[in-house]
Amino acid sequence: PIVDTLTNITLNIAPGTLCAVVGQVGAGKSSLLNLILRELPLNSGSLEVHGRVSYASQEPWLFVSTVRNNILFGLPYERAKYKNIVDSCALKKDFELLQNGDRTLVGERGVSLSGGQRARINLARSVYREADIYL
């Protein structure tokens, strides 16, 4: 039987605050994020999301291109912004270890990178998008 894990929820998060969604396996954490992303339909009620949303998935998604292109994801390269995000996402040491720094080619699904490197690149891409809400 299908069980609705998210029922009778009211959630208001003030701008500029940090909110952590925690709970047991199957409690609906991923479902809540997917509702906010509009990847899941609402069964009832309403949903209002005020602002631009950027998402860094739990399972990093990378495409075949350079590390830099995986971070920029089609957006223009802005040197100062890029450097700040690379520093904030702890990628500087990774770039020093990679043969061609951020111009290193990433294989399909990031197979040439460690799990931590893939996660940091995924996070940097999310932050580079300059959203109001980060999931």
UniProtKB/TrEMBL annotation:
Cited SUPFAM superfamilies: P-loop containing nucleoside triphosphate hydrolases
Pfam families from the UniProt entry: ABC_tran
Record-annotated ABC transporter domain positions: 6-135
Assigned GO CC terms: membrane
GO MF annotations in UniProt: ATP binding; ATP hydrolysis activity; ATPase-coupled transmembrane transporter activity
UniProt xrefs under InterPro entries: ABC_transporter-like_ATP-bd, ABC_transporter_C-like, P-loop_NTPase
Alphabetized UniProt keyword annotations: ATP-binding, Nucleotide-binding
Keyword Nucleotide-binding: yes
Protein name, UniProt field: ABC transporter domain-containing protein
Lineage, opening ranks: Eukaryota, Metazoa, Ecdysozoa, Arthropoda, Hexapoda
